[in-house]
Design a protein that fits this description.
Shape: globular
Structural class: alpha+beta
Number of helices: 15
Number of strands: 17
Largest sheet: 5 strands, antiparallel
Length: 480
């Protein structure tokens, strides 16, 4: 294991679908994952030992990666991506984009670099070809359609939300046998109902500003299968009219992997809470045991005893149910109206013993009326638990954590403020990056997952902090 790695770090590194390499400060390539080996066409031994003398393209790529890694040492934790032209052993030319992340120790400074490679060959070729064909579309529309037919990505051309063209890849995406199964249907049929609001928002944005941008959709195939896709849209002239070309990629497997990472983090959180929950359950059990003994010795029934026993049993049930929410596998993401204050009350019940053991008081400030947002309840619970847990871990000498809910116009703000050790601006900028953490132990995946969940709910998160004076996390979610 590398000096600055952890078991979780190593597992995520090895299992990632993104090509990754670890580079030391002196420019030595220490480790590569299997995804990078598949991308470059060489074994781990060949990549870490340096390219064979005859492999000029690989040797040039590795030298440039090492040079850029060394140059990154004096910069901010994230260096702008660098693009490379690389010739694969199969004689294919690839365009690679590399991101350099500097692994910093707060006391000792940089320890090494994590380099993440992205294959941008298809995207670069696609954008180049689309730009060329768009200029000559009126003259060579048949050639343009032939190009789309040969693309490995799914392409749909729509006019006013009605499908007018699909390529072979798009037919495979929606599990259709023939193009006439798709032509003439509305995109509302393909896009799952849970994403219709996002679809209408894109149309409204384009009508107002002419911008349409990229998007992620859950689609429902013709045979009922659900898939998650990502893509972007271009506006062109097709058959003499304005039309939208949507280019999409199936990311269902990628999202499943993200869910697996999220589930792993949830189970870790549940394990950390187990000790506090054991203490919390022991107290009502002691009360129940005492009152049962009193009932056995009493000559007549005492209704008050039964009410206390029933109350304590309900308290145990609530605590156990909250723990099960964290530990059970994540099902379908069912979105609905959620009372934010009710969620926070449940989480405070779950974590108050753990807070008490550290001499920490959790102080809620809620409006008198319910405040609703649209979202998936289990995911939002995970967000607030992660933030509360991080706040408590930053407070070594006790203190208070305040939870505020503010309904301001079209959004709801949830504010978590602690009195912990705080962070520098450099640390704040690195929050949410994989494997970056300010704690002695941790992977940084908790805040990365937290940011992803908030983003998927159409929200944002701001962080303000001063060293030795605490940290404030503010979550902004669309209000209902």
């Amino acid at each position: 294991m590398l000096p600055y790695s952890t078991p979780n770090h190593d597992f995520a590194f090895e299992q990632s679908v993104i090509g990754m390499a670890l580079v030391s400060l002196d420019g030595t390539i220490l480790k590569v994952n299997s995804a990078l080996c598949d991308l470059l066409g060489y074994s781990p031994q060949e990549l870490t030992a340096g390219a064979p003398q005859e492999e000029n393209s690989l040797r040039e790529l590795l030298n440039r990666v090492i040079q850029n890694a060394r140059a990154a040492q004096g910069h901010q934790p994230f260096v702008p991506p660098v693009e490379y032209a690389y010739r694969h052993p199969s004689d294919r030319e690839l365009y690679l984009s590399a991101r350099f992340s500097v692994d910093h120790d707060p006391e000792r400074g940089p320890k090494g670099y994590l380099v993440q490679f992205e294959d941008r060959t298809l995207l670069r070729q696609l954008m180049k070809q689309l730009e060329q064909k768009e200029q000559k579309l009126n003259e060579k529309e048949n050639s343009f359609l032939q190009l789309l037919e040969e693309l490995p990505l799914s392409v749909l051309i729509t006019k006013k939300g009605i499908v007018h063209y699909v390529n072979s890849a798009a037919l495979r995406l929606v599990n259709a046998m023939h193009s006439h199964d798709v032509l003439g249907i509305s995109t509302d049929v393909i896009v799952d109902a849970s994403y219709h609001q996002a679809l209408m928002k894109r149309r409204a944005t384009y009508a107002e500003s002419g911008e349409i941008g990229s998007v992620d959709y859950l689609i429902r195939c013709l045979d009922g299968q659900e898939k998650m896709v990502t893509g972007f849209t271009l506006i062109i002239q097709y058959e003499g009219e304005k039309a939208a070309v949507g280019i999409f990629k199936d990311i269902t497997e990628q999202r499943m992997e993200e869910d697996r990472v999220m589930q792993s983090e949830k189970l870790t959180t549940a394990g950390q809470l187990a000790a506090g929950i054991a203490h919390e359950i022991r107290n009502p059990l002691t009360s129940i045991n005492g009152f049962v003994k009193l009932l056995r010795s009493a000559e007549r029934s005492n209704e008050l005893y039964f009410e206390i026993i029933e109350s304590e049993l309900k308290r145990i049930e609530l605590i156990v149910n909250e723990l099960l929410v964290l530990s059970k596998p994540q099902g379908a993401h069912v979105s609905g109206p959620i009372d934010v204050s009710a969620i926070l009350d449940q989480i405070i019940t779950l974590m108050k013993v753990q807070a008490a053991l550290k001499n920490i008081e959790i102080i809620p400030h809620y409006p008198l009326v319910p405040i609703y947002v649209q979202g998936e309840v289990n995911q939002l619970k995970q967000v607030f638990i992660n933030l509360l847990k991080n706040a408590m871990e930053a407070m070594n000498h006790g203190g208070s954590i305040t939870l505020d809910i503010v309904h301001s116009g079209p959004e709801v703000q949830i504010i978590v403020q602690d009195e912990g050790v705080g962070m520098t601006q450099d640390q704040i900028q690195s929050l949410g990056q994989p494997f970056f953490t300010t704690k002695d132990t941790g992977t940084g995946l908790g805040l990365m997952i937290t940011k992803n969940i908030i983003h998927n709910h159409g929200g944002t998160m701001n962080v303000e902090s001063t060293p030795d004076h605490g940290t404030t996390f503010t979550i902004h979610l669309p209000a209902l």
